[in-house]
Structures are given as C-alpha cells and as structure tokens.
Write a structure and sequence with these properties.
Elements: E1 5-8, H1 15-27, E2 32-35, H2 39-42, E3 48-51, E4 57-58, E5 63-64, H3 82-97, H4 102-124, H5 141-146, H6 159-199, E6 204-206, H7 214-220, E7 227-232, E8 235-240, H8 263-270, E9 275-278, E10 284-287, H9 290-306
Parallel strand pairs: 1-2, 1-3, 3-5, 6-7
Antiparallel strand pairs: 4-5, 7-8, 8-10, 9-10
Helix pairs in contact: 1-3, 1-6, 3-4, 4-6, 6-7
Amino acid sequence: MTPDFLVTHSGGFHADELLSSVVLSRLFPKARIVRSRAPEWITPGADRIIYDVGGAYDAAAQVFDHHQRGAPLRGDGQPYSSFGLVWKHYGRDYLAALSLPQAHIEALHASFDANFVLPIDLMDNGALSPSIAGPLARLTLPSLLETLKPVFDEKDPEAENGSFHAALAIARSFVEARIAQSAAKLRAEALVHQAIVDTGEGRILELPTGMPFRPAIIKAGANHLLFVVHPRDKDWCLTTIRRADEGFEVRADLPAAWAGLTDRDLEAACGVEGASFCHNGRFIAAARTREAALAMAELAVREAVSNGAS
C-alpha cells in the first residue's frame, strides 16, 4: 500500500532521518512528511512509514527505528541507523526509481551501502567519530547538514520544519549526485575494458572521452598501462595512472623536463608541435591535437621505461 505519511521525529534533525527522507520521498512523492513524537503519529498504521522514531524495527509494520534495546545490527555486528534500515529495505526500489539499469542495481546498492550509508550509520550511533577526519571534521556531510539547524534563540515555531526541508533538498542533491557518479563508473567500465582489449600490450590507453578509468584498469589486471590519452573540450589530455585509490603515487610520472611548461616552452622541451601544457606535479599534460598528445605519451613511456617502470 502506498503511504500517505512519512513520519519521523520532531526537534533537532540529523543526517540519518534526512537521508532516509531523501529515499522515501522519492519513492512516495505524494506522501506528506510529518515530524512528530506524538503517539497518534508514531503508532504503526497502514497509511504511514515511521523512521528514526517509534521504538521498534518492524519492516512488516513499516517502522524503522534503531534507538531501542535490541536495536538491529548488520551481519558483521555494526549498528544500523534509520538510514541503513531504510536503505536495506527501499534502496533497490530507489535506484530503480532513478531509472538506473536493472543489471547495475545490485552493485550500486552494495557500493552505496558500504561507502555512504554505513559511515552515516556508524556516526549516528557514536561508533565512529567525525574527529577522525581531523581538520575536516566539521566538513563531513553529517556535520554540514546539522549546521542548517536553526540557532538556539530562533523564535519562529516553524523554523525547525523549514530548516529540515531546506536541508532535505541539499541532502537529496548529495545522494543523487553520488549515485550518478557511481552509475557513471559502471558505464565507463565497459568502455574502458574495450579500450584495454583494443590496446593489447601497448602502454598508452586511448579513450573516446574523459571518464573514470582506474577501476576498470585494476579489474582487468592491465598492469602494463602507464598513461591515458583522451579528448577534452577543444584539446587532448594526457594523464598518469595512480597506483592506489588513496594518495598521489603514480605508475609513471611525466618527464621532469616538462614540469610547469606551456605552449612554445613545452614544445621546445619535448619536441612535439602542439604540446600546450604540463602540470608542475607531472601528473597531467595537454596538447592541441590527438597526434601531439599521443606523441607526448610515447615520449613519456620511453622515459618511464628507461627509468625502470615495469
């Protein structure tokens, strides 16, 4: 049955019920969000979904709270927040509602759960502190969403609800953008895989456009690749390949002699007409034509191999 109401608690809001509201309001756009702790609202009924309040976790009754004794845990013992519970039960339908390919839904559901939902669950339950982010602690998504709460001496009785809905719109943007990025990576994977096949044992991977490439390279075990070339707006881009998801170490740097040079200076340094830019960090360069970008890539491969790149 389609609910008429999406019920969560009143008072100060947090990331977990905001993000739960993102999912549920997409699936049930005609349902009204009710923020209340009144018994008549947080009592289960066929016309409502209750989350982050209600004192129970009962999917059949459409109640998804995690504050009670015996609150639900994941299979590995980590705690759920309301967001994790809502994602568990409604996440796949939410992804389908975003018109994502059915073949990608399971992978996206699991990836988003592990990389986005779980950290929210842990922070909401006090199992993970924002302080681990160091100086960026106040810039984590849960912290930023909470800055949208009314200040303590706000007198407008509607301020909390107004702030909640303003924060909901922002939270929705982050969720949908993150999922769109993840979906794009899956689409890119097929294109990159085909380009790897076409490249064979070559060291330079040419792609039809800029796209996420490292996951597909790792998945394919294409350890021989050193550089990637692709068109970019009106020029062509030459990039390195990072060794790990974190950090900046790459399989091979661009030549040191190119660092920080542009246009004629770079053309003189590398001997390639059309070379236009090399970042001082030597991880990206640009050229005005495909031929120039590929020529620069060949020079970069030659130097990298001579310096011991495998």
